Amino acid sequence: MSVSTDPTLRSGLRIAIVGATGAVGQVALQILADRKWPADRLVLMASARSAGKEIAYLGRKLKIVEGRADAFAGIDVAFISATTAVSRELAPVLARQGVLVIDDSGAFRMQADVPLVVPEVNGKDVLGHRGIISIPNCTTTPLVMVLAALRSLAPLRRVTVATYQAVSGTGAAAVRELDEQNAAIVEGRDTARSVYPHRIAYNLLPQVDRFLDDGYTAEEHKMTNETRKILHEPALPLSSTCVRVPVRISHSEAVHVELARPVDPAEARRVLASFPGIRVVDDPANSDYPMPDQAAGKDPVLVGRIRRDSSHPDGLVLWLSCDNLRKGAALNAMQILDEAVRLGALKPRAAVN
Predict the structure, then answer these.
(1) Is the residue at 159 inside a domain?
(2) 138 flagged as catalytic
(3) What pTM did the predictor assign?
(4) Number of domains composing the chain
(5) The one catalytic residue among 129, 242, 251, 322
(6) In terms of domains, do 73 and 153 share one?
(7) Which of 138, 198, 221, 256 is the catalytic position?
(8) pLDDT in tens, 306-332
């Protein structure tokens, strides 16, 4: 991207990344570097224990400042990827100060007055923001993109999904735990665990987040509620089973969709291939299908194994993989910012004060 063609880059906005030392914050920083975002329009923030440390950015060293409410003077946009508690504390205060908050936590996703946005699906919802825009859960984002594409062929009737979620969705400590457990097993040592209730190396856990009274986990409820909100389909029947797998980066999903009419897989491939942000990888005869390592570090949602559901005449089945740190979080945030600029839902505070 060049300054002459990118409206967001030309906007003069100043951005703060809260949680700049975390996994998602680091990916956000790389995306900004790829865009050649000026260092003097970027402020990196983290907890008090990280304040004063330096991070390399475009040949410079940027010093981390503590992410306190009084540290946002002159900031137009705050991307928060820290804890839910940090988001709840900071976001409302910053919104009142005139800062647009793009929040990666679950703190505000289901609030009626907070847009929950995947720009390829419901980008115009940014126009309804009151200072806070939420990013969906990293499993919801690729799912709604696929469903939005398919419902252009026929209305959705029912969705069932099983997720295979990478440990980086839990955070850096979970990645370290996986690596350490892998090494211990190879070396014949006992494994230690602190992040998950069971060993994750050479294993998988059919539990992501806490269990609720109905037997589903909070993560599974998030997928249902967030999907309905983003698609503007509050009664969409959807059920999910979320599983943690010993993969470092990229979530995968097996998706079963019942539509209002039979849809030929070739027709589905066509609309999926033309949908922004999706790349079809579907040549099973040559073992070509989406895989986590293929999606890691890439922007598109990879979709393949598109076939008829043998259990229902109006059903389709497919498989997807998506980098949970990029499109599942940091990239989606930057695209929300782009959409807000494009639609005139955000202007530099200096221009309106």
Answers:
(1) yes
(2) yes
(3) 0.95
(4) 2
(5) 251
(6) no
(7) 138
(8) 999 999 999 999 999 999 999 999 999
